[in-house]
Amino acid sequence: MEWANDKSKGGVLAHLERLETQMSRSCKNLEDPPRETAESDLGTKIHKLRCLRDKLRAEVKQRQARIKASTANAEPDQTLEISEQEAVGGKEENMKAILQAYRFTGLSGKRTSRGVCVCISTAFEGNLLDSYFVDLVIQKPLRIHHHSVPVFIPLEEISAKYLQTNIQHFLFCLCEYLNAYAGRKYQADQLQRDFAAFLAGPLQRNSLCNLLSFTYKVEPQGRSFPFCARLLYKDLTTTLPTDVTITYQGTDASSTSWEEQRASHENLFFTKPLHQVFTSFARNGERLDMSLVS
Amino acid sequence: MDARRAEVRALEAEIAALRRACEEPRTPGEDTSRARKSLQEIHQSDSGEWAASKDLRGHLGHLESELLFLSTLTGINIINYSMKTEDLTSTENTEKSIKKVLQRHRLSGNCHMITFQLEFQILEIQNKESLSSVITDLNIIMEPTEYSELSEFVSRAEDRRDLLMFFRSLHFFVEWCEYRKCTFEHFKEKYSEAVRLPEGAASSCMVVQSPRQPGFELVIVWRIQIDEEGKVLPKLDLLTKVPQQALELDKNRVLETAPLGFRALLGVLGIEAALESLITSLCVGENH
Questions:
Q1: How many Cβ atoms are within 10 Å of B96's Cβ, its own excluded?
Q2: Contact B164 A127 (CB under 8 A)
Q3: Are A179 and B164 in contact (CB under 8 A)?
Q4: pLDDT digits (tens, 9 = 90+) for A193-232
Q5: What Rg do the C-alpha atoms of chain B give, in angstroms?
Q6: In this predicted complex, what is the ipTM?
């Protein structure tokens, strides 16, 4: 019978219900007639109920068979997936590697449950320096959940200007400030580490490394430190100073050569990174030594 | 009689139960979750791997979205990357607990229409106090090579081994190129009679000619330069081409001072408005 093949639940059930109503109606009709026919009617009822039960059993079996079939269908996929897994795994490795490689562009990051955590990498003259992160919550308004940006970097100012309107600009700007700070810090660290012999005492600096003050000499052997330097980096996005003041505090009478030196030093500090200025001092000192020897 | 009635009752009960089994509403996920459960039962031994594979699919999608975010943010699309390491630690280094590793990186990708291939080396030195990472070599190959402004920039980046500046400046350079192309195309479309792009929209010059006075030409040269610090700046210049007669008639030396005037106009109005006013002033009278 075609209705047995009707897969739609409504179709089969509806038919069964109709059958049932027919039967209950026919049963009702059977209740009134005389007792003599009751037994034979009961027989008919049983027969009809048996039919109904059989149909329902078939229906339930069909449902179960359908489930079994769908699970059976999944089986061959599984073998396909295992061999595919290697290809997929290889692709995953490649993508993970590329994500790591983004740090060389200055900005990398990953998605978080809240939004995104952006990592800003810094470098100076080929030296890879510290990274900083900014954890952003993607909401309206966009906000910073937490970060590792040093307190003396004007993060609030930059985010107030750009965060809501242009996240790319916000990050690039922050990148600029952080890279410049990292570069200035690197120069100051290098000076202290490699040229301590040229300095009278430690280099004086602020946390932002944009105000440096030190007393120095240009030859490692000399006992006096004739020059006093004050470097100010007003533009926080640069790694070279905007203001350089060199004063000569020696007691030497012949002032013209000192004045020349002082002026040339000022120019050097304006144009070259701090530690490179001292490298050239050291090299000049070596040249002088050589001339003494020969 | 009683037995039959009992049978009737039993049948009715069974029918009711079967009906319930048929009517049971199936929640949408129920079939699939049942399937998954039974599948897991069947493949107990391999379920670990198989489940990992399923997770991998979702994980891949996650990685893809992260990559899309980064390429949109930086403007740089990295397609391939690989790294090899070489241990350069000598026995002397090991005694002093110094570790030296040389990393060879290969990276390729594109920034809009410009493709790049980079090969660089990073020397990592780890001693007791600190870890230093220095780029010791940088090689950059870029295509297309018709952007002459770029070749100088690339050499500078290679000399300085400044990888970060390379990527940042490249991104801004390409953005400016796209903006220039869009602007030129916009004006060509709006003033098709007056504006010519003799070298195409991707080039650096736009010629404005009054249709009524074809002898007069204004050539706007828009170059995009990358300075020493890696800052990308547009540089616009105005060149005038006029017939000899007009030059002689020009008592107020308007034409001589035009380039300077244009620079001033740029400062006041910005690029688009300055170009627009230049074109409309030449084509005045066209539209009424």
A1: 10
A2: no
A3: yes
A4: 999 888 888 899 999 999 999 999 888 777 777 889 999 9
A5: 35
A6: 0.71
**Edge-to-edge strands, sheet with B217-226:** B195-196, B205-209, B217-226, B232-241
- Residues in Cβ contact with B87 at an 8 Å cutoff, skipping those fewer than 6 apart: B99, B100, B101, B102
Could you give phi then psi for residue B131, rounded to 5 degrees? -120, 125
Interface of B with A in 168-197 (CB under 8 A): 168
Q: How far is residue B108's CA from residue A87's CA, in Å, rounded to a whole number?
A: 21
Q: Which token pair is A61?
A: 């079996």
Q: Do A92 and B50 touch (CB under 8 A)?
A: no
What pLDDT score does A14 carry?
61
Contact A190, A274 (CB under 8 A): yes
Tell me, what's the pLDDT at B27?
A: 44
* Encoded tokens for B254: 């308007």
Which A-chain residues 112-141 have CB contacts (< 8 A) with chain B?
A: 116, 118, 121-123, 125-128
Say yes or no to pLDDT of A274 above 70.
yes
B-chain residue closest to A56, CA distance:
B18
Transcribe B24-35 into DSSP letters. PPPPTTHHHHHH
What own/partner pairs with CB < 8 Å and gap ≥ 24 does A46-52 have? A46/B4, A46/B7, A46/B8, A46/B11, A48/A19, A48/A23, A49/A23, A49/B8, A49/B11, A49/B12, A49/B15, A50/B11, A52/A16, A52/A19, A52/A20, A52/A23, A52/B11, A52/B15
Task: Please name the helix (run of DSSP H) or strand (run of DSSP E) that holds residue A272, with its range, or none.
Answer: none
DSSP-derived letter for residue A179 is H
List all residues of chain A from 214 to 253 with a beta carbon under 8 Å from chain B. 238
Annotated domain spans of chain A: 107-181, 184-290
- pLDDT > 70 in chain A, percent: 76
Mean pLDDT, rounded, for B233-255: 83
Angle CA B177–B179–B184, to nearest 5: 95
- CA–CA distance, A254 with A256 (Å, rounded to integer): 6
Interface check for B227 against chain A (CB to CB < 8 A): the answer is no
Give the pLDDT confidence score for residue A72 in this predicted structure.
60
